[in-house]
Amino acid sequence: ARSAFAGLPTLEVKDTYKVGFAQTESNNPWRLAQTNSMQAEAEKRGWQLVYTDAAGSAAKQVADVNSMIAQGVDLIFLAPREEIPLIPAIKAAKGAGIPVILLDRNVDQSLAKAGEDYVTFIGSDFIEEGRRVAEWLVNNKPGGGKIIELEGTAGSSPANDRKEGFDTFIADHASFEIVASQTGDFARDKGRQVAETLLQAHPDADVIYAHNDEMAIGAISAVEAAGKVPGKDVLILSIDGGREILQLVIDGKVAAVCECNPRFGPKAFDTAAAYANGEDIPGKIINPDNFYDASNAADLIDTAY
Ligand code: GYE
Question: The Periplasmic binding protein domain covers which part of the protein (predicted)?
Answer without folding.
Answer: 19-279
